[in-house]
Amino acid sequence: MNGMGILRGMGITIKHFIETYTQDLKTKNRYYNPAGIEMRTKSDTSGIFTVQYPEEKIPVPEEFRFLPFLVYDEGENGQKELRCTSCGICAKVCPPQCIWIVRTNDPNTGRPIPAPAEFYIDIDICMNCGFCAEYCPFDAIKMDHDYEVASYERMHHHIYDKEKLSKPASYYAGIRPSNYALEEAARAEKEAAKSASKTA
Amino acid sequence: MTEQIISSQTPDFVTKFPEWVAIDQRAGYQGFLVSADHLLEFAHFIRDDFGYDYLSSLTGVDYLQENRMEVVYHAYRSIGGSALVFKVQLPREQPIVSSLVSIYPGVEFQEREAWDLLGIRFEGHPDLRRILMWEGFEGHPLRKDWKEAYFEEDVKPFKNRWPDGHVYRSEDTNPFHDNVKYPSKFDPEKWIPEGDEALYSVLKKVKGEGDLKTDRIIINLGPQHPSTHGVFRMVALLEGETVVNVKPVMGYLHRNHEKIAERNTYLQVIPFTDRLDYITSMSNNFGYTLAVEKLMKVQPTERADYIRVMMAELTRINSHLIATGFLLNDLGAFFTPSLYSLEERELILDIFEAVSGSRMMCNYFRFGGVARDLPTGVLEKIKELVEERLPRKIDELDRYLSKNEIVRTRCEGVGVLTPEQAIALSAAGPVLRASGVPYDVRRADPYSIYERLEFDVVTGTHGDIYDRYLVRIEEMRQSVRILKQVVKGIPSGPIMSIKPLYQVRVPAGEAYGRVEGPKGELGFYIVSNGKPNPYRYHVRAPSFINLTSLNQMGLGSKVADLVVILGSTDIVLGEVDR
Asked: How much is the pTM?
């Protein structure tokens, strides 16, 4: 019969409509708390699917990448020890070429020292591909999770310098726990091999 | 096995036409060199006598050192098999070659593109205007001696980034005048755009068939129009309410992706391919890495192959969901169907995000494998999706829409493309298959592990909008079927077959890698000269080439149908304009 197809289709819409209310009645705490957000983003979800940003935020997965930052280890006296050796691999691999590094030279000998004098990232140009973090041999540059970087000035504030880019290793361990654990294990192994070869 | 049969079938053109066909003997190159004077004859011959009826890709290469231009053709049989590559070499000062539009109408836009970007003239082309750049633009940007605004160096990485990288914004250095080239007598104050007149005069050339006594009207749909899903313009010539000719106008989003890629190193191109068809970034990665892997002669590991296929099929579902949802938007069902499909898409994107770190710009494939292994819990998530949710939701979408009388009356018999037309116009993907041509690169010229997987090539019968819609729905089911096999069979093991390097060595030569993307055959033609950057990089963009058939599909329909026809070809402007 003509019109049955439309009615059947409308039935599905009505089902969706009613479901939003029955789901709300069935489960408590569906909104504005982490458990509720998780419930709504699982594969068996039904009812309301949207998340009310910025009141609610979907937690980002560990691999999520948004803008690079430089990792520093905290020294004994609280000084920042950047892991970066200014080897330039990140600047070479960067597809839009948004990384700028000035290498430090020893004032006496003129030889390069493995530490960056200046380190800039133009975040307007950065395309968040994650290559710099992927190919850094020293685990010195990593991709951040903080995606809320809107600002009022869009010219020179968007060129991040070394100061603004530096974040502690503990922060890195916090946002990427399993990657951090893997890297630390690899590093410990290397150290062990090194000391073993030294003693032998 | 199949490779051997096909290659033994590749006809021996050289003994047949010794005067004007030769084998391309440069190291790493393949195919035949045809003399420019006999190109038409050759094309006739391969189409009519040898069944190479599907001219998939046409592009040019500028060999600056040898002072030569080369036009490269990739032809296929629509029954499947590998490519017949033939090339025409031209002098660089006067690159003129006969147009193949009369034999393969599908090359119309590709020849225009080659003219626009490389300055190769195609004699006998009915409408050889610029297609991506604006009328009045000076120069041909893909030529090797052309330099863009803000030009820094020929190839990346740029020298001034390290070790003395004193930062500056390129905008500060260039107060607009330096690098923008205008024609010699150009005065922006007095300039009147003339591109439109040229366009309209071509449009008006068609002869009217109707007995209707009426004025002809030109209607512009776009560049800002909700139906175009981006910045895209359709110019329609109407007789009464009936469309008698349509021309798409594109290039509003043009950024010369190919030039960017030729400046980049091989690895740096991968994130740029994400931005072609931004809905199907995983498929784009797939095609590009396949092409480079062919040149490098590396194979991905078994596990990497499985992960790749898994991601590619999830992408296909994702893209078809969007295509279906927004087709309904074009039909006037304001956003309810699209939001239902966006819900499933969101769950797929969650997987992409967990795997690759980004929802849309995945940048996940590497030469010889993938960037990282599946994180814990992701495989279970995919399993839940493909076993439980997606089949149910696809069925729901089917129940919701397929029998809807309004959908059927609007779509059935509208925008028809017959199988012969579809092949001749080089249509690809669901558009081609809905016309009843069972051509799917996954089966016709299998790559990766598709040979081992069970699935059907979905075809339609009528070639109208409704069949395109049905083909997409059914293809999603087939993708779910593939995913079930892949999730079950995924082996453990390494994910990279070579050491991950930021600077790969690619031997000199050429390669064409193609995959069946959700929109159709997505091909990457790469010429390497052994340096760290590709010498020539060309994308055979399915949405761009599918637009060639827009005119044929639109003839005789109404303006309201035109909107739906465009929706059913499922274009993404990031890929059309590149």
From this structure: 0.90
A116 prior amide bond cis, ω within 30? no
| Residues B523 and B57: beta-carbon distance below 8 Å | yes
Please say whether the beta carbons of B84 and B52 come within 8 A. yes
- For residues B254 and B573, give the distance between their C-alpha atoms in angstroms, rounded to a whole number: 9
Residues of A in contact with B263 (CB under 8 A): none
Residue type, B184: S
Q: Which parts of chain B have pLDDT scores under 70?
A: 1-10, 174-184, 193, 208-213
| Axis-axis angle for helices B302-331, B465-489 (nearest 10) | 150
Within a 10 A sphere around the Cβ of A50, how many other Cβ atoms? Answer: 10
Q: How many CA atoms lie within 13 A of A65 on its CB side?
A: 25
B158, B267, B388: residue with CB nearest A97: B158
Please name each of the domains of chain B with its CATH number: 2-123 (3.30.460.80), 257-577 (1.10.645.10)
Please write the tens of the pLDDT for every residue from B345-374: 999 999 999 999 898 999 999 998 898 888
Q: What is the largest CA-CA distance in chain A?
A: 93
The alpha carbon of residue B64 is apart from the nearest alpha carbon of chain A, in Å, by 25
Taken in order of first residue, the domains within chain A and their CATH numbers are 1-55 (no CATH), 66-199 (3.30.70.3270)
How far is B346 from B344, CA to CA, in rounded Å?
5
Q: Looking at the predicted complex, does its ipTM rise above 0.95?
A: no
Residue B146 CA to residue B139 CA, distance in Å, equals 7
Best of A85, A100, A182 to mutate (most B CBs within 10 Å, chain B)? A100
